User: Fold these one by one.
Assistant:
Number 1:
Amino acid sequence: MPFIPHTEADIAAMLETIGVADLDELFDEIPPALRCGELERIPEALSEAGISRLMQTRARVDGEPLCFLGAGAYDHYVPAAVWDIATRGEFYSAYTPYQAEASQGTLQVIYEFQTMLASLTGLDVANASLYDGATAFAEACLMAVRANRKTRSRRVLVPRTLSPLYKTVVRSIVEGQGIELVELPMLDGVSDVGALQQLGGEGEAFAAVAIQHPSFLGTLEDVDALVDWAHAQDALVIGLVNPMALAVLRPPGEWGATGADIACGEGQPMGVPVSSGGPYFGFLTCRQDIVRQMPGRIVGRTVDLDGTPGFTLTLQAREQHIRRSRATSNICTNQGLVATAATIYMALMGAAGLREVAGSCNANLYALVDALCALPGIRRAFSAPCFHESVLLLDRPVAPVLDALSRHGVLGGYDLSRDYPELGNALLVCATETRTAEDIAFYAGLAGELFEAAA
Amino acid sequence: MSEVHAELRYTREHEWLRQESDGSVTIGITDHAQAALGELVYVELPEPGTQYANNEACAVVESVKAASDVYAPLAGEITAVNPALADTPELVNSSPYAEGWVLTLRPDDPGVLATMMDAAAYQQFVAELED
């Protein structure tokens, strides 16, 4: 798409037409005290050649480290075909087009995307994607509060094992709407099911209970017990899931006796490279009976007047352009391009391919844990089974170890000591299908040398 | 000209109210409202037993072109909702004053009903809107 800036002459002509002397006059109703003034810390603009050189220099500083870091973004292999297809002119747009039904191909891709996510999560309906995993989880909390008219509560039970980054985002989004987040404590790296006894008493009802599975700490939660407890309290259940793990784990729709009501998560593992935090995409799926509380666009399949099959935007009465302030959400953005890449990735891999990737991740994690725990001074923190991440306890502070590893080109994991001080010197490590036996041996060898040198 | 029923009371939100012999009040949307909304595809109903304040949104009527809140015209507790609307929301279009009723409510203050618009007043209100 060509970029057509306003020229000085264009701006002057527009100002003259409306009878305004200069651009600043357009803003003069904003009191001076509220204006930010000069942005002194923003450097001068660079030329295209200048910015290209700067970015290359920065990329070289990153290097190509061997990645054992996860904590929400995962280094999976992305087949070359994914972005080759996604960046074709027919797909290369960030948005659903205006006059959407004129772009049947785009709507069909979204429909396929929705079908794949509904199938992976075991639920009835998916939307056309959201901004990222954290905001998808926040929307799931808001949706549950609207949908649960049995308890009419504005409290959501969230686990201690929830990603601390997600917790921050969700708090920012929901607390301004008077929603209270109550924390479910953890025991041995998983949500403490026993602690539920003290919760949910008279006047303490919950709109929803959230479960992150696998948890931020890599562990598998007792999802059946949590879902059954929540439903016995008339609370809805939100499953925050990693779509890659769903290739081998029971989907949220089949948790407990009745299944989770809403599932959401970060879609990055499906064909999206880890790149400085984004762009990624969020997904949101739910049971049919609460679909009218689901935010975002939904594409449906239908037939036209002549009986020809086609795709259309559906249930738009929930959306902001019709319901105004009572819309399900005032965030209208989906991540069309990134979701398209994910659809291509899932189609290329197929169910069997995804199962194979997920299985390799799991096998590689256990190989990594075994190799590292063979070293004196490293042991597993928890006994619960894991998917592709696990917490290790070191006999020394984590940060200097990670620094030393990174000087040798290894991203050794995520230091948990700030978010979970109660765990001590805890390190979250991850292995995806891209880590080979040699990679794991290299990490363990390097860690062994570092520990010995320091001892 | 839309139809009004003489025995009912009305609100400026185009809802009608009927006093029942057991003290409850039946509530629906008027013929004018259903015609303005167009064909209904969904009615979202509250849980019986729930307490609503006066003017609090307690239901949603969704048509092919819009979704509108139904406001509790009186403070009170929902005693029943129309079960037929789950599968046949179009009853609100075909029979707004009978089979298409939305819910019943037990008002906190039964006296308020008599102060609301009667059929003639509502008819005039609608006529002014249509001018």
Number 2:
Amino acid sequence: MTKDSLTRRILEAATGGPVAEGAIVSVPVDRIMAHDGSTPVVAATLERYGITELRGAERMVVVFDHFFPATTEQEANLHTKSRQFAAKYGIPVFSGEGICHHVLANRGLVMPGGVLVGGDSHTCINGAFGCLAIGLGATDVAGCLASGHLWLQMPDVVAVRLSGCLPAGVMAQDIALAVMERLTVRGALGQVIEFHGPGVAGLSMAQRMTISGFAVEAGALSGLFACDDTCRIWLAERGADLDRAAVVSPLPGDVSADVEIDLSRLVPVVAISPSPDKVVSLANATPEPVHQAFIGSCVGGHFADLQAAAAVLHGGRIAPGIRLFVAPSSDAALKAALSAGVVATLVEAGAVILPPGCGACLGRYGTLGEAETCLSTQNRNFIGRAGAKTARLHLASPVTVARAALTGTIPSVRGAS
Amino acid sequence: MDSGRLLRLPPSVFDNVNTDLILAAKFLRVDESDLGRYAFDGVIEGFAERAATHPVLLAGENFGCGSSREQAPKALIRAGVRMILAQSYGYIFFRNAINLGLLVLRYSDRERAAALETGGEVVVKNGGATLVGPGGHELALAPLGPPVTTILAAGGLMAALKAGLL
């Protein structure tokens, strides 16, 4: 008997028939996304092969986020090239609205029960909305654009069961890092992580996006949540296509879990350089001097993230010698933070606000120098990720990062090499 | 290309090799034809020179995890890599490599792979099911099936699409 899963339901809806374990399927893609880093490569690939008939063009969007605003002439020229490519095929370009995955969600361009591909590894974030959202390289994106289809092997599923309520001061990043600790960086290789259980209902869409956004760090194609009432309401407000939302309704009964996480038992944690699965609790950490604190990225720059950081920083001042950069994930997050006075609080505490976008996550702004240490709300801390190869990059929640900004130290493991 | 001299990745860069290590973000805007010299820059000294004469890479688990940057496999190809042997791959890297026509093969017996050393001539036999190294040392490989074989035979995804093979 085949195992029921959200992934199976989506692929069977897409292909119109049963899909066997490990079967190779070709599925129509409902949305194709590329950003300013991947679009020029997609365009060049299609040009090289003289492919001008793009069956997926109507489903494609381009988002500028990795280097918008441009910081060099070369980047500006790449933006021009992307705009020209998009104009030729009638593809919309969104710039100044923040990180691609957030722009897709905010504009209602995600579809529960559908298949979404993006030229960015963190495309898995939009699995939070019940769509099979898969990150691809540029040639695969070009192939989807040309054919309108994606081939893939029916992936195995890792079921994570969430229960309980998150304690105060513990955030979605702590949940995601708890999952990383359990799965490790290859615990879901080539698989899809599905999040089920009674703990899901209490999570906001922003929290789900953060959790889904770590899926690829465990090797997964996507991090899927069912589309429940919270999800439907959020998407309906943004005009999303909910026609296939019933495909990914919460699965009946209690799903047999590969990993069980009791949210009520979670504590604030930090993932130590250079791997997102090297997770330790703050309680077991000793202070380590920090040079930079970053609140932002696709998993740490929601309005709620900025708000939580502001609550910690309110009335205080960041430690001498430390720099705090804040990059809202989207223009919507920035607007909400401005209206709520969150931006004022952050700036009064000494934060520098970066444009909505990827920010310091890959070192485009706030590049790390030799032997510097950074505590960040992002999802990836590989060697050299955000600057010098000798820099140390640790991951934590916005609350933990804000606390570190105030004290000038970040938690590190006692006695660790 | 199904044979060549082997380059075993050093122990510190054998498992969980991410695409930031293969090609750092600061080289993403480099012209494609120049990418080869930046492969594993600051990670494996003289990688490009070694790969030029040792086109078969041997790695462990989860090779190419992380960022979707296609410049990572492109940099390896430009450096001269023609085949990669690993226990497992980051799924995006695996697809990218195939899409660019780079042969990526899987083995499971890490102990037998341990006998394969840098400089040894290896050849893929039995329709991709066996790797034979120096002294007839054999390593079982997971055979690739369609559509991967179709894409590789065409020289990459776009060529396969252009030819109407997919």
